[in-house]
Amino acid sequence: MAHGHVGVRSLRMRDAAAWQQLRGAQVDWLGPWEATLPPGTQAPFASHRAMVRAMIARAKDGQSLPFVVTWDSAMVGLLTVNGITLGSSRSANLGYWIARTHAGRGIIPTAVAMVCDHLFEAAELHRIEIAIRPDNSRSLRVVEKLGFTKIGLAPSYLHIAGQWRDHVVYQLVVDDVEGHVIDRLQDPVVE
Questions:
Q1: Which pLDDT value is given to residue 31?
Q2: Taking the CB of residue 180, how many other CB atoms lie within 10 A of it?
Q3: Average pLDDT, the chain
Q4: Collapsed DSSP state (helix, strand, coil) of residue 9
Q5: Cβ(68)–Cβ(78) under 8 Å?
Q6: Domains identified in the chain and CATH numbers
Q7: Residues 6 or more apart whose Cβ sits within 8 Å of residue 21
Q8: Does position 62 have pLDDT exceeding 80, yes or no?
Q9: How far apart are CA 41 and CA 22, in angstroms?
């Protein structure tokens, strides 16, 4: 999927090295927002390659959809659809990150909009959820731009930067979208 310079494509095994290099260069940038393991928890993956392999296997099982976010075909971030539930719920949740060098350009709102449209149309989901730390102003702007509805506070929702952190939960329901989610973007992507 592409919209201008912004692209979203499935994560592939050959992305492991590029992801490791890109993510490694973002430690200070992403550290305050990055999920961590609670004390006493064993790391589930020995390498980025093992993590990519597991993410691809989960995608084949219909449990998740890992996407590479690109700018002019170069990897600049990752967007993952997790918790895909079909049946009477037909829902999923999204998580994402972008390299500091590409933040503030409208890339993530564009990528999220494209993936939401895909989930509503191709996967026939009814509801998409995004949980964000209340102090993450950049990520809050993403859901605001796309018209997600705030549904509440989830105390101690996720272990981040060494502590259990509260998150504000937002949702977008297919019935609330006229046309496409991508049409909700009013700010052009910055070159």
A1: 84
A2: 14
A3: 91
A4: strand
A5: yes
A6: 2-184 (3.40.630.30)
A7: none
A8: yes
A9: 25
